[in-house]
Amino acid sequence: MLFLAPILALMLVLGIESSCDETGLALYDSEHGLLAHAVHSQVDLHEAYGGVVPELASRDHIRRVVPLLRKALNEAATGLGEVDAIAYTAGPGLAGALLVGAGFAESLAMALAVPALPVHHLEGHLLSPLLSADPPRFPFVALLVSGGHTQLMRVTGVGQYELLGETLDDAAGEAFDKTAKLLGLGYPGGPQLAHLAEQGQPGRYTLPRPMLHSGDLSFSFSGLKTAVLTQVRNRTLDARDKADLCAEFQAAIIKVLATKSLAALKATGLRQLVVAGGVGANRALRATLDAGTQAAGARVFYPEMELCTDNGAMIAFAGAQRLLNAPVAKGSGRFDVRPRWPLGEV
Ligand code: KG4
Ligand code: ZN
User: Fold this and answer.
1) Which residue has its alpha carbon closest to ligand 1 atom 3?
2) CB-side exposure of 227: number of CA atoms within 13 Å?
3) Domain span including residue 272
4) Omega prior to 129 cis, within 30 of 0
5) CATH number at residue 316
6) Smallest CA separation from ligand 1 atom 13, residue
7) 98: CB partners within 8 A, 6+ apart
8) Residues 196-225: what's their mean pLDDT?
9) Ligand 1 atom with minimal separation from the 174 CA
10) Does residue 203 sit in the same domain as residue 246?
């Protein structure tokens, strides 16, 4: 038998994120906003391996989830008895890592007799700018740029996401990470490559701007990584060479992302662009989009810097939005995760 919880106007939602290498727990209050969020990054754990080791990630989520929950409850000066619903990332992501968050969330929800809401990780990213002090309003165009996805979407409301274009191969974050790895920059590569790029000059090396003139809103970044490989093969790079190569690589990615984002605004006739996902933390990308949207008479919105990468706050918020719109089943102890889950299917 299915027990449906009523639609609550005032509620406290616990959000749990464990899809990859960050454990995030947060408490979102529909009236007072984000009360607390606690994140543990596994960067140190995976650094020695040059990438995320799924089994280690799952085990670490298990270790962190309860201490982070306590931390978030303390920060919000509240107790579990006050929680009205639990939202958790059910996909996409690493199956084992997702199962930790899902199992914890569903069993806690059953024990507290509150609804449990499976949330799409990208929906969390997509709605995260709505947590800022100056949020966008529906409808808007969203540029989702994370480690696994590069997509342009038309967002007309919660759960109403139309895919306008996406990458045909590597995601932008993946291209940053793979290129950083081949330049020997360590893990996580994206932020390190971006940091080095700020010290270099674009133009000394020449890299392509893939699909810039394709006439559609698709992307392709895997050739860019190969082009970098061609430049560095059989060559010893000094610090300046590396910085210049990073600067050119970053300029190439930004040029394509910005051009297609502006084209998406034009094609849809919308004037608000929302940027979400880890690559949205890139300062040069932000500067280019700020200038580009301003010149086009549009506006660009970002999540708070600390909410750009994976966190529980965006999951709690997305869960709360769902709960405000439709009744949700109470935790039954039965659940599934979806390591692959197109956003259009939410
Ligand atoms: O959204 P996110 O935290 O996790 C996923 O859902 O994938 O995004 C992580 C991605 C990684 O590929 C990382 O290298 C990239 O975001 N990233 C950056 C920057 N900060 C994080 N890429 C470029 N510049 C940055 N500053
Ligand atoms: Zn993410």
Assistant:
1) 309
2) 18
3) 138-302
4) no
5) 3.30.420.40
6) 190
7) 18, 19, 89, 90, 91, 337, 338, 339
8) 97
9) 12
10) yes
With a Cβ cut-off of 6 Å, ligand 1 is lined by: 20, 125, 146-148, 173, 176-177, 188-191, 194, 277-279, 281-282, 309-310
- If one counts the domains in the chain, the total is 2
* Among candidate residues 170, 171, 160, 175, the one with its CA nearest the CA of residue 126: 160
Q: Which one has a higher pLDDT value, 256 or 231? A: 256
Residue 132 lies in a domain: no
CA-based radius of gyration for the chain: 20
Nearest listed ligand to the Cα of residue 148 = 1
β-partners of residue 290 are none
Q: What is the mean pLDDT of residues 229-254?
A: 95
Beta carbons of 97 and 20 less than 8 angstroms apart:
yes
Tell me what pLDDT residue 143 has: 98
Nearest CA to ligand 1 atom 26: 282
Instruction: Find the mean pLDDT for residues 329-344.
Output: 84
Q: Which atom of ligand 1 is nearest to the CA of 93?
A: 6
Same-domain status, 292 and 174: yes
Residue 176 pLDDT exceeds 60: yes
Distance from Cα 2 to the centre of ligand 2, integer Å? 31
Residue of the CA atom closest to atom 6 of ligand 1: 146
Which pLDDT belongs to residue 170? 97
Q: Does the pLDDT value for residue 329 go beyond 70?
A: no
Distance CA 197, CA 63 (A): 36
Do residue 108 and residue 211 come from a single domain? no
User: For position 2, what pLDDT does the model report?
Assistant: 46
Closest by CA position to 90, among listed 339, 343, 344, 342: 339
